[in-house]
């Protein structure tokens, strides 16, 4: 799934109105784009638009969300923070798997001056492992609090390692190339004051699933 196809964000988020002025406070939803992770939505600050205690029954909401509940990416309670980022490329080498074919076929002996550089098998293997670790672009996951108007409230959001360039020479950076869509419940209100009606509606939230070193 491409990023541009996955960004169907916050479907059917209607305009919320200020009780006093009746002027639009929020726009319908963010425009689809290639920018991930998703930026924070601007919420109406009035707590009247928050779900009440009786609207947060865990059993009822789990039944409503059904098979869309994914415990690997969702949490009702605040989880322990997990941040795998590191400025040391060799730290990220663990669990990379086998070297890509393009690295295995890389000719390390050729120089810009047409001469050949001799390199032993052990030295070549270590250098390729270092190069693979340096240019590898993992998805780094952290838990994000979406606020009380989402259920489950917490999502494990993906980010691309972007603390430094991932290429030789420098100039390329890790960027998202794929995403997966998770379905959450969104507390949705329309109207205002005593005429207000609120309910839980399903919305889709894209999560980065793959990063790549690119321009």
Automatic annotation (TrEMBL):
Localization: Secreted
Pfam families: Noggin
One cellular component term from this protein's GO annotations in UniProt: extracellular space
Signal peptide: 1-22
Residue pairs linked by disulfide bridges in the UniProt entry: 137-174, 160-211, 166-213, 189-198
Record note on quaternary structure: Homodimer.
Family: Belongs to the noggin family.
Name of the molecule in the record: Noggin
